[in-house]
Design brief:
The chain is of the alpha/beta class. Helices cover 40% and strands 17% of the residues. It has 2 domains: 41 residues, no CATH class; 176 residues, Rossmann fold (3-Layer(aba) Sandwich), CATH 3.40.50.620. The strands form 2 sheets. Strands 7-6-5-8-9 form a 5-stranded parallel beta sheet, with helices on both faces. It has a 4-stranded mixed beta sheet with strand order 2-1-4-3, covered by helices on one side. Helix 2 crosses helix 7. Bound molecules: iron/sulfur cluster (SF4). The site of iron/sulfur cluster has 9 residues, from helix 5 and helix 8.
């Protein structure tokens, strides 16, 4: 993934940002490049670390939440965390981006086994809408650009299902990943919440990323090496994949 590691002036690690944002910060004199492979910048100021997110936590107690699930490993910590807030969690599987079909099925079956193990009900969107995904991103295959389309497709289907089933809120396991653009996901989630009349629950869950690896290992879950679409598979193997974000600076 083309994300740039970020440190503050005291060398505290912060959330990674997009290359575009890193370049803007450097151009504005707010940061300097400290590495190119992997890419990293250091801000010229100190950033106080955010306080734990307890203000949003109680909002889910007793609520029915539809959780879009991208894969079983990402569902581990996320489900556990939301249940810990007192939510009744129901999973939702809709991932037409996953390529090829065998990989889609492997991830789906891994989730089915894990869901049975932890007593998680899952709503399974039928079929494999890969052609619709490819049609949606054609001509907009660049990393980041296509991801926004991908987020919207999956979250929209989840918002629809949440409204249909009378859920109180919907959210996504994508919020645990340091490789996904949380700002973009939050914007899309909020738009869909307004359109479908169901709250989008947003919280940065990246603090659970290490724990999700541990839980996935503990449960013997299949762990993929690329995000999902065929472009991400190419990018994971080829630094010259032309769908990567254009590398500038650094
Ligand atoms: S890299 Fe991941 S989020 Fe982006 S389009 Fe591919 S599957 Fe979707």
């Amino acid at each position: 993934m083309d994300r740039v590691a970020v440190r503050d002036v005291e060398d505290k690690p912060l959330s990674p940002c997009s290359r575009e944002k890193a370049e803007r910060l450097v151009a504005e004199g707010q940061a300097e490049w400290i590495g190119s492979d992997p890419p990293a910048i250091r801000l010229r100021r100190s950033i106080p670390l955010p306080r734990p997110a307890e203000p949003t936590a109680p909002a889910l107690a007793g609520k029915r939440v539809l959780l879009h699930i991208c894969c079983a490993p990402c569902a581990t910590y996320t489900t556990q965390y939301l249940r810990g807030l007192g939510a009744e969690v129901i999973g939702h599987w809709y991932n037409p981006n996953i390529h090829p079909y065998a990989e889609h099925e492997l991830r789906r079956e891994t989730l089915a086994g894990y869901a049975a193990e932890i007593g998680l009900e899952v709503l399974w969107a039928p079929g494999y809408e890969m052609p619709a995904f490819l049609r949606a991103v054609v001509g907009r295959e660049e990393q980041g650009v296509r991801c926004a389309i991908c987020y919207r497709m999956r979250l929209e289907r989840t918002a629809q299902a949440a409204a249909q089933h009378g859920m109180d809120a919907f959210t996504t396991t994508l919020l645990i990943s340091p490789y996904q653009d949380l700002e973009q996901i939050q914007g899309i989630g909020d738009e869909l919440a307004a359109a479908y009349g169901v709250t989008f629950y947003f919280e940065n869950l990246r603090r659970g990323f290490a724990e999700h690896h541990r839980l996935a290992r503990q449960h013997g879950l299949y762990r993929q090496r690329y995000c999902g679409c065929l472009y991400s598979e190419w990018e994971s193997r080829d630094p010259n994949a032309t769908t990567r974000r254009p590398a500038r600076g650094g």
